[in-house]
Amino acid sequence: MRKLLLLLVFVVGCGSEHNNSESNDDAQKSTSQPNDNYKTDLIIQVTEEVRITWDVNSSSIKEDSLLTLVKLDFNETRGALVNKILNKSPMPVTDCNNRKLTMGEIAFLLIDKIESIPYFTLFEIQFDVLNENCTTPTGLLDFVSSNRDKVVVALSSQSSDQKAWTVIHGEQHVFKVETPRDWVRDTESAQKSGLVAFFYPKEFNSWNKVYAFAQGYDKTEGETLKTFKENNINRMRKRYPEMEVNENKAVGNPPILRSTMLTFTNLTDRHKEEAVYLETETSFVVLVYAASTKDYFDKYVNGFDEFIQNFKYLGTNIEEFRKK
Asked: Which residue, of 113, 202, 253, 275, has the fewest CB within 10 Å?
């Protein structure tokens, strides 16, 4: 049995300011061409070494073999992609908000898709308003277009292997989680399930083999960790009547009041799921890890341990957090 120690840090401040820098628009003419196999696809040459497929039907970057190659070589190509944000060349595509895109904005969307850019930490603006069937927050690309230099400086200030933070909040909780090393964030699939993001190893094209996620819940009157946990178990048992549940201790530092870890086995659609439950004065946080097979579970469980260790609770009010 793995021993689990939660080093949960209460953070009073956040982020740092980035100075603007002067940059010339050295945009180069970029080419795009139709993919003969898919009438709604467009192959876009973003940099000399990076090509992607743009799905015209969904107005988004397609999850395919080209994107897999970009993910695998991202550490080497990230710098060129960041610089490409300065490119104002118009492209024959629109995003899911029906906004005409430039090459620089496509480069930004590609970086965001791979490493999940922490908007608030870097830009001190929380872009969290989404239109239906759209994963690009309203106003995000307008900000990028008007602040290209600032965006490039902010992204360049991160080392190529620095992990991206994801801020998750409700009315009474704010916390952030860090993408584990060699994992990626998937907001599009997660939002369909009512979550902020799924995280999974970058060698996969989706989360269906291995995934982790975090979710926060504001407390209701009289609710305790015991009742919250039992209600979740009862909901899961309706779907998995034969499931087995084991509970192990988990240690959390203030402001975490109580914590525990549940392991769910004998599930019909995955090998095992682990869920760490945390209680604060005003909320509950759940960190979840699951895998489709035992081999996958054992191979990537260290990523979940890293996910837990890097969890940071930020406070109870998102507005106060934004003012820091």
From this structure: 253
pLDDT, tens only, 64-94: 889 988 988 888 899 999 999 999 999 999 9
Look at residues 115, 134, 156 and tell me which one is the last residue of a structural domain.
156
- Rounded to 10 degrees, the C-alpha dihedral 125/131/132/133 comes to -70
CB contact at 8 A, 145 and 105: yes
Q: What is the pTM of this model?
A: 0.58
90 domain residue, yes or no: yes
Rg (CA), the chain: 21
Instruction: Encode 196-229: b = buried (16+ Cβ within 10 Å), e = exposed.
Output: bbbbbbbebbebebbbbbbbbeebeeeeebeebb
**Domain ranges, residue 122:** 32-156
DSSP characters over 187-206: HHHHHHTT-S-EEEETTSSS
Q: Which of 156, 174, 199 is the last residue of a domain?
A: 156
Verify that 151 and 181 share a domain, yes or no: no
Q: Which residues contact 247 (CB under 8 A, 6 or more apart)?
A: 260, 261, 262, 263
Closest CA to 281 of 215, 196, 223: 223
User: How far, in Å, CA of 11 to CA of 13, rounded?
Assistant: 6
pLDDT in tens, 283-297: 999 999 999 999 999
Kindly give, in sequence order, each residue whose CB lies less than 8 Å from that of residue 63, ignoring residues fewer than 6 positions away: 205, 206
One domain, residues 308 and 177: yes
List the Cα angle 285/287/290 in 5-degree steps: 150
Q: Are residues 149 and 240 in the same domain?
A: no
